[in-house]
Structure formats: structure tokens, C-alpha cells
Amino acid sequence: MEYFSIAGTNSRVSRIALGTWAIGGWLWGGTEEKNSIDTIHAALSKGVNLIDTAPVYGFGASEQIVGKAVETYGGRDKIYLSTKVGLEWNEGRVFRNGSKDRVMAEIEDSLKRLRTDYIDIYFVHWPDVTRPIAETARAMRELYEQKVIRAVGVSNFSQGQMDAFRSECPLHLSQPPYNIFERGIESSVKSYCENNRIAVMAYGALCRGLLSGKMAKGYTFEGDDLRKVDPKFNEPRFSQYLEAVEKLKLLADKKFGKSILAFSVRWVLDMGVPITIWGGRKPSQMDPIDEIEGWSLDLATLSAVDSILAEYIKSPVGPEFMAPPTGLRTAKEL
Ligand SMILES: NC(=O)c1ccc[n+]([C@@H]2O[C@H](COP(=O)([O-])OP(=O)(O)OC[C@H]3O[C@@H](n4cnc5c(N)ncnc54)[C@H](OP(=O)(O)O)[C@@H]3O)[C@@H](O)[C@H]2O)c1
Description:
The chain has nine helices and twelve strands. The protein is α/β, with parallel strands linked by helices.
């Protein structure tokens, strides 16, 4: 496993983090606790020491499972937990809330669910644009100064929003989406982070399973699975993305003898992103972790990837559909 030292902290984390959104069940068609705990244990046994979760993933369920899994595995002091703050929910609907009160209340709940008295990395999940970012940042600084959180992060923030945040609070990490198909951060966020020693911990390495290699035309999703409303998984785009995946599969196999999954995770790391989050919920999904090590993508391959995208993806689309609404609620909703 490759490891990375996060500037301004004592943390040396695995470059692959386990993502536990699907483990929470919500928007992923449900989940199962034993499988989830075994998945976390499988990742830890392969050298992953960073687990990403959030209160909103299953409305507490993911954090609870992560807490249980870490306790039963042991060695909390060698495992880095990253969780998030700033989303609230009401009858299954999610809103942004970056108020100081919300931050202070949520940390207590997360600590309990995670069965710990500190959080290694605490991310603001989405920027709350209905209030000054400085308010959220000051609350985060308070927690950081109290040493309840050991590193501060923001997620889904633009360059300008990170600038505003940093005028009130140290910022160690940023968590944006990034994978072969979703490259919005290349326009400014990525270089801004590099220039300011903010570690990028990118999510969605497999583009919600599209780059896992197991999807084909007609693939269906169960229950409340968010991919039912993801524009990439609906026609006419789904076929375009699947065609690109087929070409990428050939490239990965012909040049490196690797699966598309390993190739996609390696691509994120070799594009200069220090940490990539890989989402899973079944122990066997962690098997390919060993395939990521000991090789790298050369410039000709990176350029071949770009050519495939240009040829097959006629109407590219990002993950914007996932953005939760701001906290402007009607009286009825309150
Ligand atoms: N900060 C944010 O706003 C934000 C947003 C999204 C995600 N995240 C974080 O990033 C993590 C990863 O993102 P993600 O979960 O959206 O997507 P992802 O890592 O791109 O993909 C997860 C998908 O890959 C599939 N998969 C994983 N390992 C596999 C394997 N070995 N073989 C075949 N398929 C495999 C899973 O399949 P199944 O569906 O069959 O289980 C799931 O569909 C999340 O869990 C969360 O921690 C953060």
C-alpha cells in the first residue's frame, strides 16, 4: 500500500481510502451489516488505514457500522476516520446547514456513533451558501483548537469558497469528485490545492460503479439507488459511457494486463491526486486493492484515455445532480 503524509498534521494515510456511503444503505438500494463490517475489515487487512464516512450516509447508519467495525478490528490509534458535517435531514430530505449550532451538535453525535473521542479528519460536506462561510470555518477552528478534530477538510468547495474558509481556519484537505469521467477539478481546484498544500482526497474513483467493469446495457438498479436519476446511467448517455468503458478496458488490458477497475484507480493516483476514495460494501470488492500497486500510467496512456473520451462521450456530464439543496426551507418543511 502507498501512504501519504498530510501537510500540517501527523497523519500518514493510505492513498486508497475506503468509502462507506453505500454501507449506509440510503440511496444505494439498502445494505447489510455483517457484509459491511467484513468489508471494512477486508480493507484494513489490505493496508487501507483511512475510512471515509458521513452522518448523512444512512442517517447515522454508516457511522455506526464504521464505529463497530473499528472497535471489533482493534487498533483505533492506527486507523484514520474521516467524517463530515453540515448536512441535516428531515423526513429523508437533505439540506445544507453550516451554522455553528449544527456543527457543534453534529460532532457530538458523530463521536458517539463512531465510538471514539476524536475525529482524524472532519470535512464540511457541502458549502452552505445561505450564510457566510466564515461562520462554519470559525466553528471548525474551535473544534480543531480543542483537538476534538485532528485535521480540517472541506468537500465540494470551489477555489473561492476555500479561500474564504482559509481566512478563518487552517485547511488540510479537500474532498472533490474526481475520476476518468468527472474531471471538473482540473480547471482550478486541483492546482489551487497543490499550491496551498491542501491534500486532495478525491471521491468516486469508480464513477459510482461505471468504471468497475461490471456494467452493461440494460443494467438495472434496485430501490432508492441514486443511479436511477444519475444522468450518466440514463440513455442516451449510458450507452456512450459504456462504449468508452469498453475501449478503456481494452487499453488497460493490452498495455498493462490490468482490469478497468485497477486502471481507473491508478489513473486518479497518477494524475497527482494524493488520496482516492473507493466505495465498497462487499468484502470481495476489496480483493483488487493489491492490483493497484507497483505500476503506473505513462504519458502516452494518459493521452490515449483523453482521446477515448473525446471520441465516445458526446455530451459529458458531471456529478452535479448529487448536490443537496441549500438550507432554504419553507415553514411547512420545517
Ligand atoms: N463528499 C461527498 O460529497 C461524496 C460524494 C460521493 C461519495 N463520497 C465518498 O466517496 C466514496 C466513494 O464514492 P462512491 O461510493 O460514490 O463511488 P465509487 O467508489 O466510484 O463506486 C462505488 C461503486 O463501485 C462498485 N464497486 C466497488 N468495488 C468493486 C469491485 N471490486 N468490483 C465491482 N464493483 C465494485 C460498487 O458496487 P455495488 O453498487 O455493487 O456495491 C459501487 O457501485 C463514498 O462511499 C463516500 O465515502 C463523498
